[in-house]
User: Fold these one by one.
Assistant:
Number 1:
Amino acid sequence: MRRLRQTKIVATIGPASGTDEMLAHLFQAGADVFRFNFSHGTHEEHAAQLKRVRALEERVGRPIGVLADLQGPKLRVGRFANSKVSLETGNAFRLDLSEEPGCVDRVQLPHPEIFEALRPGAKLLLDDGRLCLGVTACGPDFADTKVVTGGTLSNNKGVNLPDVVLDVSPLTEKDRRDLRFALEIGISLIALSFVQRPEDVEEALGLIDGRAHLISKLEKPSAIEKLEEIVDLTDGVMVARGDLGVELPPEMVPAIQKRIIRACRQAGKPVIVATQMLDSMITAPTPTRAETSDVANAVYEGADAVMLSGETAVGQHPVAAVSMMDRIIKHSENDPAYPDLLNAGQAVPRRTTADTITESASRASATLPAAAIVTFTISGVTALRASRRRPLVPILVFTPTLWIARNLSGVWGVHTILAEMMNDHVDMDALAVKVATEENFAKSGDHLVITAGLPLHILSPTNVMRLVQIQHVETERVAEVPADIRV
């Protein structure tokens, strides 16, 4: 079960990677979580993919996370009479609600909510920021603009509004159908696109109603303005650098990424860095040196996971992309400078029993030194606390809840084990020793640092830490532990 690294890998499933054989190859290469992009594919196709992932999970005997990424509202211009036009810098151009095919002077923008929010001086970015329009006048059904950056504009290109907060839910009717479906088939990680404000997170959490964890995708400047509030509400965050890089000046994105990661680490919320990490590997067998540095920087900053999108969904080298990401992570984490760089973003412990125990466990694992930290958890919170401290030893997490075990597979340093809670600390210690030794995390003479919230069978805050040294005499006790566990 053991990955020889702490940072996790999320791989997107698509036409290039959706077979049983390819899923197995991606998992063996290092994928920890599989992302289903609900912008593409039918419900039937996603259900079939989930069956393949669960069959793989059964074969390898290890919980595998699945992330359903909702599409969110897509803002696009309409169609042109000749499919495309060339907009000259300095010329006037109108956006309106008319369904008439567009021309060099105007085009439909079928989103009245945009016109309601626009003000003179606002900017509209078209086609992933390749064209820019400045609003000169606007009303409830039109916007007159001046072309700031010209170029070719074709049918149905996307629209970004960096200066505007739209009064629109991040959940379209399609997203609501997709969310219901994802929950029905047992997907327990949901990514919410187009998050602008804390209220968007609250709306999605209300619909999920405790049946899954919510990952908020931060891709709007307005979300960064409310970063701490959004992080506090959500279960995790994705740094979605695609739209974020369009709506913000490119030079700002690295600093924003670092700020988001710091906020998530402080709050103990998992954070995924996504978009264009090894983008050239969609067609090339090896990445650029800049891309490898990009992945390494996310590792040094302490991100929980790094994500591959088109590289594994439609790319020509999906397995090589995962393997390359795995190698970059391992090399970065073995860098002698890694601990110091990781500690530079260390979360400050709160004055609580749980944080006191977690801080002590991390220090004890370094002082002894220990082979691993072991946590027992029902909700997963104890595991998140252990990971928040970023100890430089593996974290073995025992939980009786399958969907929690799957979701923790994307959390930094965590190796999940599905097992019933023990009746007392003696059985708890024995189970920890059994798994740690059988799975080669530890050997005779090594120490384990064990944390839990007692009583074990109810939701209790982390309040106990135990130090256990593995001895030959414990073998008989270990043999008594039920072997019906999944790692």
Number 2:
Amino acid sequence: MAQFRITKPYTMPKDKVREAAEGLAATLERQHGVRSRWEGDTVHIRGAGVDGRMSFHDDLIDVSVKLGLLTSMFEPVLREEVQRYLDKHVT
């Protein structure tokens, strides 16, 4: 199993951060067939071989992802995709 964690500070308003997080969840659903479920300021993402969580609090976005055996080979690609999205949409 592989896992990764990405944190990114933000200064934009919290409602804009939530919009960005919703966009990332929608992109992952569309491109990778995962499902997302919100609980407050945390979105849980699950799919075949993917279990993740993204939350935003204290001016910090925190993304944690665990990958199963078969999906672990895609860890570098998924990590880069999430990082690129956050860098583009979160300030």
